[in-house]
């Protein structure tokens, strides 16, 4: 995803951060958000591949794929995307310990997006499963043309922890707790110039049952001791557990993963203050 920090972009974000708490909610409905998901999915699924470049190092790293389409919605572009093969997420011990290894990383990426859309979180950029030659079948996620959170921090220009009233941070914490995310840090979250959050790299989601020993959401950790944003409280309260069952039923889990998600959902519905007792690395150092 984009790491460029322009002066105008920076000013826009600081303007957003300077809004009163009552106006943070306005950021939940910015026009520059991906609303036409069906068309973006079609573009990601059927557009011809122009070229493929590796991202990072090592044979299990993702790829940046350029597609023959100009379709975009706000900051989300389908002309570029992130491709992950079935082996992209299997190199860490926490992953191997916490996840059912019969379910691949790309399946988890796709399921996280499907659940995000079904429940209305609107955090995850569009994802499809498709073949990209010569790499094989994997997940394709639309490219968000805004900086990673770690880049805002790295250049000492903006730190999300300065504004815990941003409702998008609360939505992300709720989503990551709900889906059993074990690797949410500042390098796999994008923050746009309006303060909106995009949850990328979701292949480390959906732990076995309610296994919390490796849960990790640094944005959630930054909220510990803070009241859950009222918008998010109300939003979570209306999530239907039957929708969770229906969506997760599209993936063949074998370790009570659906039970775990619903158990955490019920806990979220009663949560009023973000607590270190949520488990895992919620109590560890924030990065």
Walk me through the structure:
The protein is of the alpha+beta class and 287 residues long. The chain has one domain. 34% of the residues lie in helices and 15% in strands. It contains eleven helices and eight strands. β3 (72-73) and β4 form a beta hairpin. The radius of gyration is 18 Å and the shape is globular. The protein starts with 6 loop residues before the first helix and ends in a 17-residue tail after the last helix.
Pick out its properties:
two-stranded antiparallel sheet, alpha+beta, 287 residues
Major sheet characteristics? 6 strands, antiparallel
Radius of gyration: 18 Å
Q: Count structural domains.
A: 1
H/E series: HHHEEEEHHEEHHEEHHHH
Structural class: alpha+beta
Give a short summary of the structure.
This protein is of the alpha+beta class. The strands form two sheets. Strands 1, 2, 3, 4, 5 and 6 form a six-stranded antiparallel sheet that branches. It has a two-stranded antiparallel ribbon with strand order 7-8.
Write the SSE topology.
Blueprint: H1 7-17, H2 21-24, H3 37-46, E1 49-54, E2 63-67, E3 72-73, E4 76-85, H4 93-98, H5 105-119, E5 127-132, E6 136-144, H6 149-154, H7 167-179, E7 189-191, E8 197-199, H8 218-221, H9 230-237, H10 241-248, H11 257-270
Antiparallel strand pairs: 1-2, 2-4, 3-4, 4-6, 5-6, 7-8
Helix pairs in contact: 5-10, 7-11, 10-11
């Amino acid at each position: 995803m984009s790491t460029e920090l322009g002066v105008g972009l920076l000013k826009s974000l600081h303007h957003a951060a300077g809004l009163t708490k009552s106006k943070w909610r306005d950021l939940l409905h910015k026009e520059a958000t991906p609303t036409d998901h069906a068309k973006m999915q079609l573009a990601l699924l059927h557009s011809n591949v122009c070229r493929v470049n590796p991202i990072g190092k090592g044979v299990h790293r993702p790829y940046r794929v350029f597609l023959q389409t100009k379709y975009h919605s706000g900051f989300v572009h389908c002309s570029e995307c992130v491709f992950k093969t079935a082996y992209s997420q299997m190199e860490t011990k926490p992953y191997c310990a916490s996840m059912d290894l019969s379910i691949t990383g790309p399946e988890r990426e796709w399921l996280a997006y499907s659940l995000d859309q079904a429940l209305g979180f609107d955090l995850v950029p569009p994802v499809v499963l498709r073949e990209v030659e010569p790499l094989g079948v994997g997940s394709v996620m639309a490219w968000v043309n805004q900086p990673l959170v770690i880049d805002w921090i790295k250049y000492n220009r903006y730190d999300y922890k300065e504004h815990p009233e941003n409702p998008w941070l609360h939505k992300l914490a709720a989503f990551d707790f709900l889906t059993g995310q074990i690797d949410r840090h500042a390098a796999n979250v994008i923050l746009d110039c309006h303060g909106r959050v995009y949850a990328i790299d979701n292949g480390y989601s959906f732990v076995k049952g309610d296994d919390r020993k490796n849960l990790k959401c640094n944005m959630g950790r930054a909220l510990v001791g803070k009241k859950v944003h009222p918008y998010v409280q109300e939003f979570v309260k209306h999530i239907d557990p039957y929708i969770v069952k229906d969506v997760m039923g599209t993936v063949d889990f074998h370790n009570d993963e659906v039970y775990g998600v619903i158990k955490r959902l019920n806990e979220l519905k009663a949560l009023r203050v973000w607590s270190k007792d949520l488990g895992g690395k919620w109590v560890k150092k924030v990065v």
